[in-house]
Design goal:
Blueprint (H helix, E strand, L loop, with lengths): L14 E3 L2 E3 L5 E5 L6 E6 L3 H20 L2 H17 L1 H12 L3 H18 L2 H4 L4 E6 L2 E9 L2 E5 L7 H12 L3 E5 L6 H12 L7 E3 L4 H9 L3 E7 L2 H13 L3 E5 L4 E5 L5 H13 L9 E7 L3 H13 L19 H16 L3 E4 L17 E4 L6 H4 L6 E7 L2 H9 L3 E2 L1 E5 L3 H10 L4 E4 L15 E2 L2 E3 L5 H7 L1 E9 L3
Parallel strand pairs: 7-8, 7-10, 8-9, 10-11, 12-13, 12-18, 13-16, 15-16, 18-19
Antiparallel strand pairs: 1-2, 3-4, 5-6, 6-22, 11-21, 14-15, 17-20
Helix pairs in contact: 1-8, 2-4, 2-7, 3-4, 4-6, 10-11
Length: about 500
């Protein structure tokens, strides 16, 4: 999409290279407010030369930064956390404008990002090695964790603040330098994050920012100076990122898509279960990798559950995220909205029953990119709407006879990000957690998102790599071990 004649009125979006903002010479796209459909900002696509300059800045900064005492690195992160909190409302407003989240969702994602900075501030203890005296006669052995070099983060549109915080705070706390390439749909939040990091005292070149789409990503994946790549996005792109980066000799953690299942057993407490499913399925307009997209209703719970879900969806307030009454915001782009609507059309053709048709909601006719909450009942578990990642406010109800069949439905999915069970039975919950094929499991929890000191551990087609994001896995991903064997002569 080319720059419009109104570009002079649009907000700018600079790169950040070697501690300075840079106006890109590359082509420009227009960013639209998803709640209004109005143009907001001019988003650049970094040139290959600009990306190379960012990598060089990171490489030049690495020797000094990696030798900076870890306590000093973390002091900067403590200051950074303070600055982020002081600008919390600014970030909430940015997230709402760029992504369309509600006020509550924007604030919640901000808080979860702050948790990641706090966890990274513990790097002095997280990076501790191990020591064993007398591994041989007069021989001692010990290990240390060491920074690996220039790291890259490629982040998605759905969490413009939180997901970058999964990556660069821990990477730089461990002594690495970093290049952030945010989604070209929501890059301005990242600009402000990088600006404040330098205000906190981060040296030039330690944290750099570039913009763009596939061309920018390919430059980073094939650059020999880059040592590690972190990615969050769809599974198709995650697989491409993993293969391309690994083929170019880099370590990779690539988090992909999901088709998360929530199993509701007949003994589940109805009110809390419905509230949890509504929050998980329609929160963030369904645009998150831990959203419930398939509800597996076991036995006689199906009819009353569908009835209560439809009632709750009818009462859901959908609108612009900046309004306090709003409970669900818009879809990120018009293209995404059309794709979601095409899946609802497909569901009808596949024989699903439309328990609630969000296409008929008045908000779907406004200028913003809205789809009303949609509930599909009696969905065939082999259908496309039951298997594909729709990434929108569309909930599919699959009916099964027992818990064993529910686990079989989940097991056939190509994804393995998250799964939840709602029950009052401890034994049923234990059986579920021990046999479900998903890396993150909830018991009476709609969104089983781990806190920052646990890993975000997707399975199957939801993750490509060996070490997951967050937690101790992140420390291990951003460091490599050195093992020393020592003997001193008499």
């Amino acid at each position: 999409m080319s720059t419009s004649t109104t570009a002079v009125d649009l907000k700018s979006c600079p790169l950040f290279i070697n501690g300075r903002p840079v106006i890109s010479r590359g082509p420009k796209d227009i960013q639209y407010n998803p709640a209004t459909g109005e143009p907001v900002a001019e988003i650049p696509r970094s040139t290959a030369e600009e990306i190379s300059a960012a990598v060089q800045a990171a490489q030049d900064a690495f020797p000094s930064w990696s030798k900076t005492p870890v306590i000093q690195r973390c002091k900067i992160l403590f200051k950074y956390r303070q600055l982020l909190e002081e600008h919390a409302q600014e970030f909430v407003d940015l997230i709402i404008e760029e992504n369309g989240k509600t006020i509550e969702e924007a604030r919640g994602s901000f808080d979860r990002g702050i948790e990641c900075v706090e966890f990274a501030c513990g790097a002095p203890t997280l990076m501790m090695g191990e020591t064993v005296e007398r591994v041989g006669r007069d021989v001692d052995g010990w290990s240390t964790r060491n920074a690996i070099g220039v790291c890259v983060g490629i982040t998605p549109f759905n969490f413009p603040f939180m997901v970058p915080m999964w990556m660069f705070p821990m990477a730089i706390a461990c002594g690495n330098t970093f290049i952030l390439k945010p989604s070209d749909k929501v890059p301005r939040t990242a600009v402000r994050m990088v600006e404040l990091a330098h205000e906190a005292g981060l040296p030039p070149g330690v944290l750099n920012l570039v913009h763009g789409a596939k061309e920018a990503v390919d430059c980073l994946l094939t650059d020999a100076r880059v040592k590690a790549v972190s990615f969050v996005g769809s599974s198709a792109i995650a697989r491409y990122i993993y293969q391309t980066a690994a083929n170019n000799g880099k370590r990779v953690q690539a988090l992909g898509g999901a088709k998360n299942h929530t199993v509701v057993l007949p003994d589940a407490e109805m009110k809390s279960t419905v509230n949890a499913i509504m929050g998980s399925g329609f929160g963030c307009a369904g645009e998150r990798c831990l959203a419930t997209s398939v509800v597996v209703a076991v036995g006689e719970v199906a009819d009353p559950l569908v009835k209560e879900l439809v009632r709750a969806a009818d009462n859901l307030n959908v609108g612009a995220g900046c309004e306090t009454k709003t409970q669900m915001g818009p879809i990120i782009t018009e293209e995404s909205r059309k794709r979601i609507l095409s899946y609802i059309d497909l569901a009808e053709k596949e024989g699903a029953m439309l328990a609630r048709d969000g296409r008929k909601d008045p908000v779907s006719k406004t200028k913003g990119f809205f789809v009303g909450p949609t509930i599909l009942d009696k969905v065939n578990p082999s259908s496309r709407v039951a298997k594909d990642e729709i990434f929108g406010p569309v909930l599919s109800i699959v009916r099964v006879k027992d818990a064993k069949e529910a686990l079989e439905v989940i097991g056939k999915s190509e994804y393995g990000n998250a799964a939840s069970v709602f029950t009052r039975s401890g034994s049923a919950a234990r059986e579920f957690t021990q046999n479900v094929t998903a890396g993150m499991v909830g018991i009476n929890v709609g969104v089983p998102a781990p806190v920052a000191f646990f890993s975000f551990s997707g399975w199957k087609g939801s993750f490509f790599g060996d070490l997951h994001a967050l937690g101790k896995d992140a420390v291990h991903f951003y460091t490599e071990q050195r093992v020393v064997t020592c003997r001193w002569p008499e």
